[in-house]
Design brief:
binds 3-acetylpyridine adenine dinucleotide; alpha/beta; 20 strands; single chain; 524 residues; 16 helices
């Protein structure tokens, strides 16, 4: 399921290995997250040359990236090209929404149902559904009273025309921080509703310089090897020093240099930023100072300064001109933390203190039912008719190695909960999983095995390990409401979902299992 980065790669690899593969995709085009998230300003914060497949030498030599960081339309064009070039479309069924899948014990196969009544049977079900593919349900009081248009950043209408409109954006995560500066340039008036401020690092995007792409291409295999050898799945020139072991002047100079360089390299300023509260406090203070310098109105600057969680505990945001946007005369900030949003009215919203803000268009950048949403939305029944939704809503997404959940044989889950996924360059993590899954299937075929699933005890231990590793870091700390642990959705079980040890340590765990005959999995 899913024709994004992982679904397309799986199709190419497994079809090449001789399997019969169908990809079911609800969108009218391939691209996954890069099809749905086409709001103004949408861009990836991993460099173009790294946010791309490494498995075809000619493809990586021929594709021409034009900017340091790819815009959504560039990534979508790239994935569309991949689908054409490798003749993938003939095995992709677009506009096909899966509503459920049931494990049939007697045939050892899954039967899959779609919204329009089609049915498929398959030995393996690979859930290439993405971590951020189901938008969070709207939880805004009385939204139905609002008389204007409501747009979501997810599935943004291609023909949305907002020039001259009075627009309000709710949400200041990665999406909000990208859509706000883009909209501010075209709308008449923009009201930004913020509940929890974020640390926003400047992207410093630019066109690739002459010869830059050629230089990357000349050493692409080495670059990919370095990416796979970094815990983040993308090479960062991480400073090996600890922040609190250097003097204040060196600390400041290091932060400053990386702030000017832009992008996620800022997070590699020092080695202990996610381990030592004092180190993290130092980088937080640096960003807060920057906010104070950039934003002219100090009352607004104060509201934009995060102070309730460590930098990184909530997904750090990388965006262009975010803080600068609040200096524009047509942009205003409404903080709903101290003064909550009480209700929507016909013409806007009202706050608890009676303040009223009017607009004709509301844009929701309110996030996702991360990791589990795509799974719990469907009716997936494993052994003995057990519903995955019931198990995961009770206990959270329990898996072994993030790949398989006990009781749901032959259902594999690339780059999702329980593996590094969103804490890494997703493309690197996807490639790691696709090759591991292909090896597993080959081994099963060679040994005449029909089923694979997580062994319950190994699963319990893995979930504990994922949680334990997260608690060695500052990631779970503070009042961040982070989707990393399901805290952005009321009632969702809270456990830290991505594997914080990174792709290198994770790769060792994958290899250990495979080398020992798939220890931790039951093969039958
Ligand atoms: O979602 P989010 P996102 N009332 O959950 C607010 C990836 N991504 O779509 O923090 C008021 O981060 C919510 O407020 P709070 C990336 O991994 C990557 O922005 O809960 N506010 C928050 O401000 C990212 O982390 C890229 O208090 C409400 C916002 O909505 C992930 O996608 C670009 C509210 C949601 O932020 C998700 O980012 C874009 C309410 N009832 C996305 N409900 C790049 O590669 C929610 N909010 C650059």
């Amino acid at each position: 399921m899913g024709a994004g980065f992982s679904g397309l790669h799986l199709l190419h690899r497994l079809r090449g290995d001789g399997y019969s593969v169908r990809v079911l995709e609800s969108a009218p085009e391939v691209g996954g997250t890069w099809y749905w998230n086409r709001y103004p300003g949408a861009r990836c914060d991993v460099e173009s040359v790294d946010y791309s497949y490494s498995w075809d030498g000619d493809l990586q030599q021929e594709w021409e990236w034009t900017e340091k960081y790819p815009a959504q339309r560039d990534i979508l064009a790239y994935l569309s090209h991949v689908a054409d070039r490798f003749d993938l479309r003939k095995d992709v069924e677009l506009e096909t929404t899966v509503t459920g899948a049931t494990w049939d014990e007697s045939t050892s196969r899954w039967s899959v149902r779609t919204e329009d009544g089609r049915a498929y049977a398959a030995q393996f079900l690979v859930m290439a559904v993405g971590c951020l593919s189901v938008p969070k349900e709207v939880d805004l009081p009385g939204l139905e009273h609002f008389g204007g248009q409501v747009l979501r950043t997810w599935n943004w209408p291609e023909d949305a025309e907002l020039a001259g409109h009075d627009v309000c954006v709710i949400g200041t995560g990665s999406t909000g921080a990208q859509v706000v500066p883009a909209l501010a340039e075209v709308v008449a008036r923009l009201t930004v509703v913020q509940r929890t401020p974020n640390f926003v690092i400047p992207t410093r995007n630019r066109p690739l310089a002459e010869g830059e792409l050629e230089a990357v291409k000349a050493e692409y295999p080495e670059r990919r090897r370095r990416n796979a050898g970094h815990s983040a799945g993308v090479f960062r020139s991480d400073n090996p020093k600890n922040a609190m072991e250097v003097d204040a002047a060196e600390r400041q100079a290091t932060f400053q240099e990386r702030w000017e360089g832009g992008g996620i390299n800022f997070l590699g300023s020092f080695a202990d930023l996610m381990f030592d509260q004092a180190a993290n406090d130092a980088i937080c203070s640096f960003v807060r100072e920057k906010i104070g310098e950039i934003v002219e109105d100090q009352k607004v600057a104060e509201l934009l300064k995060p102070d309730s969680y460590p930098l990184g505990a909530k997904r750090p945001v990388v965006a262009t001109d975010y803080y600068e946007t609040f200096n524009r005369p047509n942009v205003s900030l409404v903080d709903v933390r101290e003064n909550p949003l009480e209700a929507f009215t016909e013409s806007g919203l009202a706050l608890a203190n009676g303040e009223q803000h009017d607009f004709d268009t509301l844009v929701l950048a309110t996030g996702f039912d991360a990791f589990t949403g795509a799974f719990t939305k469907m009716e997936i029944r494993g052994r003995d008719g057990v519903l995955l939704r019931d198990v995961w809503q009770e206990e959270g997404p329990k898996t072994f190695l993030g790949l398989s959940s006990a009781g749901f044989p032959n259902m594999l889950m690339p780059a999702n909960a329980g593996s590094p996924s969103v804490l890494s360059n997703m493309v690197t993590s996807i490639e790691q999983h696709v090759s591991w899954i292909a090896d597993l299937l080959a081994e099963m075929r060679a040994r005449g095995l029909r089923t694979v699933e997580a062994e319950p005890q190994a699963q319990e231990k893995w979930v504990e390990h994922v949680e334990e590793v997260a608690h060695m870091t500052l990631w779970p700390n503070g009042d961040s409401g982070s989707w990393y642990r399901g805290a952005n959705i009321a009632g969702k079980p809270q456990l830290f979902m991505p594997y914080a040890a990174g792709v290198v340590e994770y790769g060792k765990a994958l290899e250990k299992s495979a080398k020992s005959g798939y220890e931790g999995f039951v093969l039958a």
